[in-house]
Amino acid sequence: MVLAKPVGAQFAGTEVTSTYQITDQQAMDGDILVTSGAGIIRADMAHDVRIFGVMQTNPVIVFRLVSGEEQPVMRSGVAMVNVTSANGAIAKGDFITSSENKGKGQKATKSGYTLGMALENLNGDSGKIAVAIKIEYAEISSAKTLARLMDVVGAIFFKDVREPGKFVEIMRNVVAALIVLTSFFFAFITFSRSVPKAIEAIGRNPLARRFIYISMMANIGLIVVILAFGIIGGIIVLRVR
Questions:
Q1: CATH 1.20.20.10 residue ranges for the chain
Q2: Crossing angle of helices 146-157/165-204, nearest 10°?
Q3: How far apart are CA 64 and CA 74, in angstroms?
């Protein structure tokens, strides 16, 4: 059944809103909700990849299920959202994401999952503002870098982890270790092939000993360069942010 509700604010929700069973009994109008193993609850971490929508107790139009126990949740359109300035002053056009303050949104200052875009400024430390809801991964930061790629991969594969940021650190360590181990592998292969052949060549042709020694030293130098590049590459990966 579709019910018409009076508009309680200038920017009340403008889309048809469906109702859902909200597990978090303390959730209130304007709170950002996420999906979890415990059901639909208030968000309590920044850039939560599980953002589901915004609770709206007084939407313009709501499609209500028969049981009547569900609450309206806005997942698209324009909704009034509870926000804070904990991550900086919010201005019209800023991306809004979840925060560590349960149910409250904040300004998104780096790439990650966002709820939508602010349609007005926030006056004060907290309050309600109109937000154009579009739940997605928003590229806010600078150019796409290795660190940014790791953030995306972590969000995709660890979307149910409470602290997906830890995955980025794990991946950074794994990639650094792989680079160093790969350089050691190639250095070992180069050494194991070149040095025995050089010794064998000296035995066969003693007169070319000087040239063979020079060639062997060049191979050793190449091995050192490979190892150095591997170690430097690992350090760069560990320090990239």
A1: 167-239
A2: 120
A3: 13
Task: For residues 4 and 2, give the distance between their C-alpha atoms in angstroms, rounded to a whole number.
Answer: 7
* Locus of tokens 């560590």: 100
Q: Does domain 167-239 have CATH number 1.10.3720.10?
A: no
Task: Quick: pLDDT tens for 23-80.
Answer: 999 999 999 999 988 899 999 999 898 999 999 887 666 655 555 678 889 888 899 9
pTM, two decimals, is 0.56
Max Cα-Cα span within the chain = 101
The CA–CA distances, whole Å, from 52 to 20, 39, 106, 140, 190 equal 11, 11, 16, 20, 54
Measure the CA–CA gap between 207 and 216, rounded to whole angstroms.
15
**Within the chain, which residue ranges are assigned CATH 2.40.300.10?**
2-139
- The two three-digit tokens of residue 63, written as one number: 């499609």
Residue bearing tokens 């602290």: 163
**How does 72-104 read in b/e, with b if 16+ C-beta sit within 10 Å?**
bbbbbbbbbbbbbeebeebeeebbbbbbebbbb
| Closest C-alpha among 7, 27, 4, 6 to residue 16 | 4
Is residue 33 a contact partner of residue 41, using CB atoms and an 8 Å limit? Answer: yes
Apex 48 CA angle, 136 and 61, nearest 5: 60
Tokens of 207: 């007169």
Candidates 126, 11, 113, 107; CA nearest to 52 is: 113
| Cβ neighbour number for residue 62 with a 10 Å cutoff | 23
